[in-house]
Amino acid sequence: MMVLKSPRKFDLDGLTPFEKNFYVESPVEVERMSEKEVEEYRQRREITIEGRDVPKPIKSFYDTGFPGAFEVSH
């Protein structure tokens, strides 16, 4: 019979705060979209959002800002 150990407890208060917001809008496509374009894009694709400070939609992988190593060859 296998005995499972309890998970270790960490002192989270002692950790350095870390913000997980890495997203930067692509100036080529995303940043230039008007609010009207954003709304039309979301309606066409039936995208529903909730919350505050929701970023504009990304239309292509290129707009993610990932380094070239992540790009797909066609």
Structure description:
The protein is low in regular secondary structure and 74 residues long. The protein has a domain at 24-52. The protein is 14% helix and 0% strand. It is built from 1 helix and no strands. The chain is elongated and about 55 Å long. The chain starts with 34 loop residues before the first helix and ends in a 30-residue tail after the last helix.
Produce a short descriptive summary.
This protein has a domain at 24-52.
Computed CA radius of gyration, to the nearest angstrom? 20 Å
What is the tally of helical segments?
1
Arithmetic mean pLDDT: 84
Distance between the termini: 52 Å
H-E order: H
Task: State the helicity in percent bands.
Answer: 10-25%
Beta-strand residue fraction: under 5%
What is the overall shape? elongated
How many extended strands? Answer: 0
Uncertain regions: pLDDT < 50 for 5+ in a row? Answer: none
Which class best fits the helix and strand makeup?
A: little secondary structure
The biggest beta sheet reads: none
